[in-house]
Specification:
- The protein is an alpha/beta fold.
- The protein folds into two domains: about 15-75; about 110-475, Alpha/Beta hydrolase fold, catalytic domain (Rossmann fold), CATH 3.40.50.1820.
- The protein is built from 13 helices and ten strands.
- It has helices at about 10-40, 45-55, 60-75, 105-125, 230-235, 235-240, 250-255, 285-300, 320-330, 355-365, 385-390, 410-425, 460-475, and strands at about 135-145, 150-160, 170-175, 185-190, 245-250, 305-315, 335-340, 400-405, 445, 450-455.
- It has a ten-stranded mixed beta sheet, sandwiched between helices.
- A hairpin with a 4-residue loop joins strand 1 (about 135-145) and strand 2 (about 150-160).
- Helix 3 runs antiparallel to helix 10.
- The chain is globular.
- The N and C termini lie far apart (about 105 Å).
- Residues about 1-10 and about 25-40 have low confidence and may be disordered.
- The structure holds alpha-D-glucopyranuronic acid.
């Protein structure tokens, strides 16, 4: 007999039973949820809870909620007060992981330097995975009579093969006309494209995605004509040219857009299958930008107008962090200049002054490898600190700059870091930083490590450039 379930008294009571079970379960769940809420009562508990969500969830909404909670929390405990800096002890760059003292260059080069690189790769910037790629340099334009005849302007694109038609690093190069080639050159990335560094109408306006910034004329994430020259006061192109230097720049967003989850539009996509993600110890955006700088160097080594042994890398702020990491890995950069690079750049992390690891990882989760967030709020557990990043530049000249009002970047922490990198320079018989205490405002000091703290805010000024060029002259000119 076929029974209609709806009218089967037995089936009805099963349903009732099921309903009761479900109701009971939901009720106990409510209690559980309530007790979980009570359980998550302290900041320490919430931290664990949200760190876990941010690290593991696939749901964008949950990720954003966790990120924003953590970011508020970490920002809430930021200090700009020296009295609140915790006691900390820096790891000695010259003692190996198994406790041996590094007494000579050969032990530095063969043991300790690689150890330090491996730590920064695994826990901070992430390592570049093995992958192959096509690379091609295409000269788009050359104007031997740019800037009123003062310079030769070249625009060259670095391309990555037919399979990646949207990927290109577009270089803008100015070379001084009044000096004999090959010339020393200073490469550096920009935040909003080549056309922002000078109002020269010959510069192609970038069509790439950009972070929103109405005030400089970025509309719908794209540059407009209004953006031309908006950052010229950060670059001082004419000053560089007069001093006999070439300038080489590209938009950081050509290498990777500066936003979480844009890896598909980045050089990192060259290393992965679609939807494949970098492992926890593999490169973040800063390491991708650094990789791009090395590809720019690959081009520069083919350009006969540029002296390949006199190429000094510069970077400001997030791009200063990038310059340090690129310079640490790629020894073809003969000088490295870090301008206001702050947290994750020149500044010591263990001081916890200004921007901390927790803040940076939750404001810009794409910049570093995922492992870096293990040190959110746990700076005291770091087996290294940023002075060891600076030490990787040795014996090459390094210049670190702070700005007095840029407390977010911890000027004193940047200075101390440069000072604590000095013993590695001394191993080479070189003077690192020539002073042991913070110099007066606007009083540069120059050994093989140079440093100044200037008055004013976060930014790059003419004063900064004049000192960079003076510093470069000491090593690049007879
Ligand atoms: C933010 C960020 C800094 C970074 C700076 C910049 O302030 O917190 O770490 O250096 O942006 O790149 O301008």
């Amino acid at each position: 007999m076929i029974m209609n379930e709806r009218y089967n008294p037995m089936s009805l009571s099963i349903k009732k039973l099921l309903f009761l079970i479900i109701a009971a379960l939901s009720w106990s769940n409510l209690i559980y949820a309530k007790s979980a809420a009570t359980w998550i009562h302290s900041d320490a508990d919430s931290l664990l809870y949200y760190e876990d969500i941010m690290a593991n969830t696939d749901r964008l909404e949950d990720y954003e909620k966790a990120r924003s909670w953590l970011n508020n929390y970490y920002r809430g405990i930021v200090t700009n007060d020296e009295a609140e800096v915790p006691d900390y002890e820096l790891v000695d760059p010259l003692i190996t992981a198994d406790g041996q003292i590094v007494k000579d260059r050969s032990a530095w080069v063969s043991i300790r330097r690689p150890e330090i690189i491996a730590m920064f790769e695994s826990y901070v910037y992430g390592k570049v995975p093995e992958f192959t790629y096509d690379i091609e340099f295409q000269t788009r334009s050359v104007d031997p009579d740019a800037l009123g005849g003062m310079a030769t302007r070249k625009q060259v694109s670095i391309l990555f093969g037919e399979d990646n038609p949207d990927l290109s690093i577009d270089l803008l190069i100015y070379l001084p006309n009044h000096v004999r080639k090959p010339v020393p050159a200073i490469p550096g990335l920009s935040f909003y494209g080549n056309h922002t560094i000078h109002d020269d109408e010959g510069i192609t306006i970038s069509q790439k995605w950009m972070r929103p910034n109405e005030s400089i004329g970025i509309r719908n994430n794209r540059a407009t004509e209004a953006t031309r020259g908006v950052y010229s006061e950060r670059w001082h192109v004419e000053k560089l040219l007069q001093r006999g230097y070439g300038l080489v720049t590209a938009y950081a967003g050509d290498i990777e857009p500066d936003e979480h989850n844009r890896i598909n539009e980045s050089v990192r996509s060259l290393a992965y299958e679609e939807n494949e993600e970098p492992a926890s110890d593999e490169w973040g955006t800063i390491a991708a930008w650094a990789w791009g700088l090395s590809r720019m160097m690959d081009y520069l080594e083919t350009d006969e107008d540029i002296d390949h042994d006199r190429i000094g890398l510069i970077g400001h702020s997030r791009l200063g962090k990038t310059a340090l990491w690129a310079g640490a890995l790629d020894e073809r950069f003969a000088i490295v200049i870090s301008n206001n690079s702050g947290s994750g750049g020149a500044a010591l992390s263990s001081r916890r002054f200004g921007e901390t690891i927790g803040v940076i990882n939750t404001s810009f989760p794409h910049w570093f490898c995922k492992n870096y967030s293990r040190y959110n709020n746990k700076e005291h557990m770091l087996p290294f600190d940023q002075h060891m990043l600076l030490s990787l530049i040795a014996p090459r000249p390094l210049y670190v700059t702070s700005a007095e009002e840029d407390l977010w970047a911890d000027p004193r922490g940047e200075f101390l870091s440069a000072r604590e990198a000095s013993p590695v320079y001394e191993l080479y018989g070189l003077e690192g930083l020539p002073v042991t205490s913070l110099p007066a405002i606007n009083h540069p000091v120059m050994g093989t490590i140079g440093y100044h703290i200037r008055d004013g805010r976060h930014g790059v000024t003419l004063f900064d450039w004049e000192n960079y060029l003076d510093f470069a002259d000491r090593f690049f000119k007879d």
